[in-house]
Each structure stands twice: as C-alpha cells, then as structure tokens.
C-alpha cells in the first residue's frame, strides 16, 4: 500500500498470497497472489491502483468460483425487482442498498456517503422492502441479499 501511495500518477496493482512457512507450499501462495491480482483487477478496475490480499478477499473468493449464470441467478432472485425498478425509473435502489449494507445498516452513515438526507434513504429502504418483501426479517434472506449485492458488483466488474 505504501508503494501505491508513493507512486502518484502511476497505476500500481498488487496481489499477495498467504505467507507460507514451508518452501514446498510457495506455489500455493503464488497461485493465491495471482487470484488476488485478477480479482483486484475485476473489482477495482485495471486503470486504478490497488492492493488486494488473498486473505482479505473474503466472500469474493467464493463468489469468483461460481459460473456467471449462477451469479446472475443469485442476483436476479434477490435483487431482480430492484434492478428492474432502477432501470425503469433511473433509480438508485441497488446502490443505496449496497451502501446501507456496507455501513452495517447504519442509516446515518449510509445517507452521508450517498449525499442524501436521512429521510431520503429511509424512503428508499421502504421502497426496497415494498419491492422485495422484508429481507431484514429473515436471516437467510438477509444473507442472500448481501451475497447478491456482492455478486452484482462482481458481475458488473467482469462486464467492464
């Protein structure tokens, strides 16, 4: 990260694997580093600097293993009504939901990042609930929604 910060105006892309104690496992770390680099290019963009560590790639390591049709099905099942609404109304419900989830459902912080009034975010969240049901009430639906938000980001990144 220090290298990327020290090279303004240049694109620095770093992927790092897990530190291995056994030299015989070096190939595993190398493979992880290449995977982290590829994932970083997909999520962060090839034109932007990034540092992506294998162990910090979290759920994206799992989602990246799924074929695109499975990812699309996951996204459509959980976010389909929101995506269709956003397309028809030039809306931002999916983006608002992603920011809200990234802030651990803290509406004040999410509204601040979105540069909207807190009540505007509350209205959007009510629209999301109206269109999708109440995903916050059921833990499995909540998990599916969060996975779908990340899968949507990965699919968009792959599409460029």
Brief rundown of the structure:
The model has no long low-confidence stretch (mean pLDDT 90). With 160 residues, this protein is mainly alpha-helical. α2 links the parallel β1 (13-16) and β2.
What does this 3D model show about the protein?
- This protein is mainly alpha-helical and 160 residues long.
- Helices cover 66% and strands 5% of the residues.
- Helix 2 (26-44) links the parallel strand 1 (13-16) and strand 2 (50-53).
- It is globular and about 55 Å long.
- The model has no long low-confidence stretch (mean pLDDT 90).
The fourth-level CATH homologous superfamily of the largest domain is: PucR C-terminal helix-turn-helix domain
The CATH topology annotation of the largest domain reads as Arc Repressor Mutant, subunit A
Classification by helices and strands: mainly alpha
Tell me about the largest β-sheet: 2 strands, parallel
Shape: globular
């Amino acid at each position: 990260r220090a290298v990327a910060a020290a090279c303004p105006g240049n694109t620095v892309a770093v992927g790092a694997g897990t530190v291995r104690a056994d030299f015989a496992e070096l190939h595993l770390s190398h493979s992880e580093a290449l995977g982290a680099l590829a994932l970083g290019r997909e999520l962060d963009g090839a034109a932007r600097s990034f540092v992506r560590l294998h162990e910090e790639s979290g759920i994206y390591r799992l989602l990246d293993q799924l074929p695109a049709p499975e990812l699309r099905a996951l996204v459509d099942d959980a976010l389909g009504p929101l995506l269709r609404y956003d397309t028809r109304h030039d809306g931002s419900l999916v983006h608002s939901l992603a920011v809200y989830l990234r802030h651990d459902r803290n509406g004040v912080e999410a509204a601040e990042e979105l540069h909207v009034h807190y009540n505007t975010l509350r209205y959007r969240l009510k629209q999301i609930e109206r269109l999708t049901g109440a995903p916050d009430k059921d833990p499995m639906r909540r998990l599916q929604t969060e996975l779908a938000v990340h899968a949507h980001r990965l699919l968009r990144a792959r599409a460029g």
